Amino acid sequence: MFDSIETPSVIIEMGKVKRNISSMAKDIRGKGCSLRPHIKTHKIPELALMQLGYGACGITCAKLSEAKVMAESGIKDIFIAYPVIGKDKIARALELNNEVRLILGVDSERGALALSEAALATGTVFEVRLEIDTGLRRTGIAPHKAAEMARLISSMQGLSFGGVYTFRGSVFDGKPTTDTIAAGKQEGAILTGVKRDIEKLGIEVRDVSAGSTPTARSVAEVDGITEVRPGTYIFNDMMQTNIGASVIEDCAATLLVTVISTPSPDLAIIDGGSKTFAADAKMGTTPFYLEGYGKILGYEGLILERLTEEHGMIVSGSGETGLEIGKRLRVIPNHVCTTINLHDHVYLMEEYGNIRKVKGAARGKLY
Fold first, then answer.
1. Are both 160 and 19 inside the same structural domain?
2. 315: containing domain
């Protein structure tokens, strides 16, 4: 089936994609919550439009350049869940704000003030949400400081305060966990607590946005959460599978690779290295306990043990790999989001067998 495809390449099984999209949309809708998927996983306008077609209220992006690609495809409701800092970026945000409903993330007085000044100078208004750090220790303001920051933002001309948001992943009590239900419930409790603190100041909090792929379903059950933003669920990967957020059968994206050398019986080399597989997920650590750089389908004893730029080294727990030069393998990546970003194109395999080459139009968008 894949004989005409050069390796290494990404294969996307569209039957699984549609099931993943439909399942999440149905579950979140059933909890009375809105779904705003993050396009960081796929970076393909066609798939974002498919998510909207299944009922998503809009999309989430991390960068303005990603949002621009999606806006050009006709998507009109976009949340940039990332601080927009710097004159050039704010200028581009102003342009995009005239084309779509644009929501911007802020987590500092300085960042909010820069947006306010730019909006006032151009006679426009930015809709903003305040990011809350609920335990990941990344961007976001501490929960106990959020009400005062919301008050400051609400007082700034040119800004419309919409609400609060967070990204936490599978974290409970500040530590990684496989208990995604408890993680989601705690995430929701922290964020809705912030909402109540802000409302005590007489400030309306319309949007309370949370949730990643592992926690989306459980956080959506928390009263007061209005929106969730999972991304990886569209494809899934070994990180999600190893914490129980998906199963192997849900993994829609695989890397098609070829064995190019067998220097010894216990070693086989494939044509995919760190330029093909994302290497940002740590091996053997909690909560994912990843073994190798992906799961080789159909060969339980084989491990993709090492990567260099152009080479992937496969070993076997039984001593011999049994692989021959020219053998093609399919590998589920550990972290699909960063893997997809390494590839200019992917191949979409339809349920009836047709395969299409599609550009990852929003890949590599750093700004």
1. yes
2. 248-359
